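Margin note: ligand = nicotinamide-adenine-dinucleotide.
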Amino acid sequence: MSEPDIDQQIAIDAAWNGLYVDGEWVAPDDRDTIDVRNPTTRESIAEVPAASSEDVDRAFAAATRAQGEWADTTPDERAAVVREVANLIDEYEAEIRDLLAVETGATKPRQDIEHGGTVTFVHDAASFAFRASGGHNQSKIPGKENIIQREPVGVVGVISPWNVPMKLSIRAVAPAIALGNSVVLKPAEESSISGGLLLAKLFEKAGLPDGVLNVVTGTGPEAGDRVASHPDGDVIAFTGSTGAGRLVGHNAIDHFAFPALELGGNNPHVVLADADLDEAVAAGTFGSFWNQGQVCISINRHLVHESLYDEYAERFAERASELKVGDPLDDEVVIGPIINESQRDEMLDYIDRTVEQGATLETGGEGDGLFVEPTVLTNVTNDMAAACNEHFGPVAPIIPFSDDDEAVELANDTEYGLAASVHSTDRGRARDVADRIDAGMVHVNDQTVNVEPHVPFGGVKDSGMGRYNGKWIIDEFTQTKWTSIQREPREYPF
Ligand code: NAD
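Resulting structure:
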């Protein structure tokens, strides 16, 4: 076996061609490799090893060996390591911004949120070491004490997507580690560095003991499938598409690992008849186009009351056409490249089919390389291609409705239930509509892209199972143990 060409640098041009297993960097040797490419230039950034099932098995063996000792450390020790990771993310801000831009096309508005949000999030996760608490319950047996404890689950398998990769990997990895678990992380192929190997370097620099975090870059069908199926996984924390999530969930349940599934969305932005148009348009613009619309919680459909429809569409299309498209390293750019050819082609196909189905293209619709113009479609109905599919791009179909009941019906007419937003100058009315929308997260007089470390994040219907963040993720990444102590002799019936 050869030595991997890995250095300690955190930079886009550092060496990234190794797996991270049991505190060692493993060279690609004769493994297949994944060519990680810059979506702006399509130049190769790195060739990372594609982990085999045997590599994943080695990662689980290391994680299983390391977990007991890690769980026996004090909460202070665990919190200190996680806090140090947050400090390092701050220290390497410029390098990390570069990495996110070059590997995944993150424009400045995404870099701001992904970098800043991750620091806050990891600091919050450090506190989890102290927050997994149990209690004492009364007993019906005289002299008995009931003690309820929360313990780490053991090994957490994490499978993450490419769209906000550092944040979406670390939102599972940092809480799992703070709570005394060990982790096997499989990042998305496209973001093998910022969703995976970067985390390995950060936790290694922060002093995490060997084996507590293992990172196996690789493909979904091989490495990802093995992570979900491995008998030593206790929780499988998956973020990605509903299709892959369904397979992962089945595999996890098969060996009684708990599936924590954060999946797709088809999120409505509902503009009621009495909405403030300026606010609704401003919110709609951010919610549709942040990160080129490549967000599970971005606005997929704009549902607008018929009395405001024309004016909303006109103002919104004007705002969309003004957004600067281009290289994400330019701070003025809002719309960077789409992650790869197949995502771009799928999205352009949704646009073409929606126009063929009778919609009007108000602005955009064209692609140049991996860049897709911000696209606004009017005269759309809920069954058209860009509306009934999760388009995952800078595409905004606008659908009219005639009253609040119809708005709710349209909003709920999807298999997904992740996020929604409702605009009205009457907050009570907006709240009534919000209460009737089947979604895990609804925002009044805002847009759908909201995440806060201490509030629950997750969806209903085909958008997933379970909740991230705060006490909700503490519950998912720990298990409950009941210990009873009989303090005086007990009377038995025989
Ligand atoms: P994807 O499902 O293609 O891939 C996600 C991850 O799963 C990748 O690491 C991939 O390699 C892996 N994978 C693929 N097939 C697998 C299999 N059979 N077994 C195990 N692992 C497998 O999704 P994507 O294209 O990377 O991301 C976009 C999707 O993710 C969208 O649907 C989006 O809505 C969803 N998403 C959801 C959230 C959320 O929090 N709900 C956040 C971001 C993205």
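The two ends are 66 Å apart (CA to CA).
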